[in-house]
Automatic annotation (TrEMBL):
One of its GO terms (molecular function) is hydrolase activity. A motif (GXGXXG) lies at residues 12-17. It comes from Collimonas fungivorans. A motif (DGA/G) lies at residues 194-196. It comes from the Bacteria. Signal peptide: none annotated. One of its GO terms (biological process) is lipid catabolic process. This is Patatin-like phospholipase family protein. Residues 8-207 form the PNPLA domain. The active site is at S42, D194.
């Protein structure tokens, strides 16, 4: 197959974003794939910026190294040490987080106390990591990949998309600002929370502001859980998944409806008509893996867990490349019509 220009949509999900690292690492090895734009929220935004910055300063190898540097830094820092008492600070996070008593304790603490009580000085190790690894001024000046980073305006609940020219360290931290964990991030007098609350990940900028008809989404939340949760932990986990996926599903439903109406009207003309008609959604999903993990495992930054997720992401990307990228043309592996009401 000849080279294919694509856009990427990267979902957020805490340390589960290491799965996306693995997928991107494998995609970067394939010279046939060229990236025009990337959208992302939370951990997806971190991956998007690290990849784009690495591409700007060192090409594909630079992007792979930038992603590895970011996640290696995450795995060597205890990102949530402020969430638990000193007596638990050396306990570590179990690699099999579904039954970790420590992680359950950390989650229960966030329900009882706000981050303004638990972390009054607004300590955020991600700020230190980004400050050391990403030169945002250089990214703005030299970055060739279009970036669309989602954040949620606290006062209105509206989505804000940060693009290359206004992307700063604070904007990226805002995209990953889980309100139960961190103080809101203020930018130009406005407070922002996690972008996954309003777009996880955003698709429309890739459709409106890029030219490629192919959108590859790397997803961290299961599309479907067949069993109805009955326990308090399971109910809470499913509520979290739904809250961070509903906007994405709604956006896909809108695209599916617009695409169907466009295809049904042969007389319709215009740029957006053509874009919708050509649109192909592709997915690298993590359903099999994530269905085995609890929401609490998103706080697990243990190196062995991070690297296991990376390896799983690489394997899923390898499967997608083998099944969908080896023929005469790139075929979508995702049915938009399933989101039609």
């Amino acid at each position: 197959m000849q080279n294919k220009i694509m856009t990427l949509a990267l979902q957020g999900g805490g340390s589960h974003g290491a799965f996306t690292w693995g997928a991107l690492d494998r995609l970067l090895e394939d010279p046939r794939i060229e990236i025009e734009g990337i959208s992302g929220a939370s951990a997806g935004a971190m991956n998007a910026v690290a990849m784009s910055y690495g591409l700007a300063i060192g090409g594909r190898d630079g992007a792979r190294q930038a992603l590895a540097d970011f996640w290696d830094s995450v795995s060597t820092r205890d990102l949530y040490s402020f969430m638990r008492p000193d007596a638990l600070s050396e306990a570590g996070i179990a690699s099999q987080a579904t039954s970790s008593a420590l992680l359950k304790h950390m989650f229960s603490v966030t329900r009882m106390f706000s981050p303004y009580q638990l972390n009054p000085f607004d300590l955020n190790p991600l700020r230190d990591i980004l400050g050391k690894q990403i030169d945002f001024e250089r990214l703005q000046a030299e970055g060739k990949v279009k970036l669309f980073i989602a954040a949620t305006q606290v006062s209105t609940g509206r989505l804000r998309i940060f693009r290359n020219d206004d992307l700063t360290q604070d904007a990226l931290l805002a995209s990953a600002c889980l309100p139960s964990m961190h103080h809101a991030v203020e930018i130009d007098g406005e407070a922002y929370w996690d972008g996954g609350l309003t777009a996880n990940p955003p698709i429309f900028p890739l459709l409106h502001l890029c030219n490629s008809p192919d959108v590859l989404a790397v997803l961290l939340h299961p599309f479907r859980r067949p069993l109805t949760p009955t326990g308090t932990d399971e109910i809470g986990q499913r509520l979290s998944e739904i809250s961070f996926s509903s906007t994405f599903f709604t956006e896909l439903g809108g695209l599916a409806l617009a695409k169907r109406e466009t295809e049904a009207d042969p007389k319709a003309r215009g740029k957006m008509h053509d874009r919708l008609k050509e649109l192909r959604i592709h997915v690298i999903d993590s359903d099999a893996l994530m269905s085995q993990l609890s929401s609490a495992s998103k706080l697990n930054t243990k190196a062995s867990f991070i690297h296991a997720l990376r390896d799983a992401g690489r394997a899923r990307a390898e499967l997608w490349l083998t099944e969908k990228f080896s023929g005469a043309d790139l075929q979508s592996n995702f049915d938009l019509d399933q989101f039609l009401a």
